Amino acid sequence: MKIFSGTSSKNLTDKICKNQFIGLQMGKLKIDKFSDGEILPIFEESIRDEDVFFIQTTNSSDNIIETLLVIDAAKRAGCKSFTLIAPFQGYGRSDKTDHLRSSIGSKMLADVLESTGMSRVITIDLHSSSIQGFYNTPVIHLNGNKIFINYIREHKIEDLTIVAPDQGAVKRASDFCKAFPDATFAMMNKKRIKPNEIASMELVGDVFDKNVVIVDDMADTLGTMKKASELIMEKGAKSVRGICTHGILSGKAIENLEKSKLTELMVSDTIGGVYDKQIISGKLKVISCEDIISKSIWSLTQKKSIHEINEI
Question: Is the torsion defined by CA of 197, 200, 204, 205 positive or negative?
Fold first, then answer.
C-alpha cells in the first residue's frame, strides 16, 4: 500500500500518513505544470502491483484534471488497485436537472473518473446520497457527523437543539441527534431566488432557551447560516453554533460569519485552504477528518468492515 497526495490535500494527507492506523511515509508524486497550465503528474517511486490511495478534493477544474491524470499515470505504471479518496466531492449540488437544458455535473464527473479505471471512491458527506448510484465502482460514503460529535460532547453543551437549515439537511441533522438522546429537533424552511440567494426563511420548531447547533454538509457563502442564526436568536435561543463538514467558504463567507449571530462555525479540513481562513476569523474552528479516513484505509487493507466507522 502507498498513499499519495494531490495538490489540494497535502496537509490532510500528511496527517493521515502519521495517524496511528497508518504510520507510513507519504508517497513521492511530482505534479509538474507547464507555463500554459497543462498538468503532468510523475510518480517518483515504483507502484507496480501496489494498492495506491490518492487523496484529492475534486472541487475545482484543475483538481479534477489532475486527479484524472494521476489515475491514468498510476494505471500505466502497473498499480494493483487505485482508490480515490475525495474528502469533498465537487459538483454534488448538480445531481439532477432543476432547469431545462442544464447538465448533471455529478453524474458526468462519476463517468469520467470511472473511465480512467479507478477501483473505488472514498468520500465524506455527499450533498445527495443518491450520487453513489452514479458510480458502477464501489463508493465508500463516510458519515461526516462523526468528525464533530466528540467536540460537542467535550464542551458539554446542555439544553441542546439540533436544527436542519433546509429540507435537504433533515436526514443529516436527525442522524446527528442520535448521539444526543436528550436533544430536541427543529428545521428551517427556506425558499431560494437563485443559488446563494434566499428569498424567505421560517423556523419550524421551538428553540426558546436552547443552545442550538445547525447541522449541514457544506458552508459556501454562509448566507443561509447567517440568516438562520439571526432568526434562531430572535426566537429566544441562548446560543447558536454551526457544523458544516465541508468549509468551501467562498465569496463573502468570512464577512457573513463575522456578522452572524454564530458563537462558532465548526468545519472539517476536507478542503485545503481552510487553515488560512481559520486565522482570518476567530469564530471558525477546523476539526480534522483524518481519523475516519485513516480508519477506512486500515479497514480496507485489513479486510475489516467499514460499517462500524459510520455508526453513531
Answer: positive
Q: Of 306, 280, 285, 275, which is closest to residue 243 (Cα–Cα)?
A: 285
**Gap between the Cα atoms of 45 and 88, Å rounded:** 27
CATH number of this structure's domain 2-143+291-310, picked from the four choices 3.40.30.10, 3.40.50.2020, 3.40.50.1820, 3.40.50.150: 3.40.50.2020
Q: How far apart are CA 172 and CA 295, in angstroms?
A: 21
Please give the full DSSP string across 79-105, using - where no structure is assigned. Answer: -SEEEEEESSBTTTT-SS-SSTT---H
Q: In the annotation, is 190 catalytic? A: yes
pLDDT one-digit tens code per residue, 92-134: 999 988 777 889 999 999 999 999 999 999 999 999 999 999 9
Domain locations along the chain: 2-143+291-310, 145-288
Cell for 47? 507502484
Q: In CATH terms, is domain 145-288 a member of 3.10.20.30?
A: no
User: Sorting pLDDT into bands at 50, 70 and 90, what band is 195?
Assistant: low
Question: By C-alpha distance, which of 48, 107, 130, 119 is closest to 83?
Answer: 119
Which residue among 10, 30, 33, 190 is the active-site one? 190
The C-alpha cell that represents 214 in the structure block? 445547525
208 vs 194, which has greater pLDDT? 208
Check whether 247 has a pLDDT greater than 60.
yes
CA distance 121 to 138: 6
Taking only Cα atoms into account, the Rg of the chain, rounded to an integer number of angstroms, comes to 20
- Note the pLDDT tens digit of each residue in 20-48: 999 999 999 999 999 999 999 999 999 99
Contact of 88 with 246, CB cutoff 8 Å: yes
Residue 193 has what pLDDT? Answer: 60
DSSP SS3 for 285: strand
48 exposure class (CB count in 10 Å sphere: 0-12, 13-18, 19+): exposed
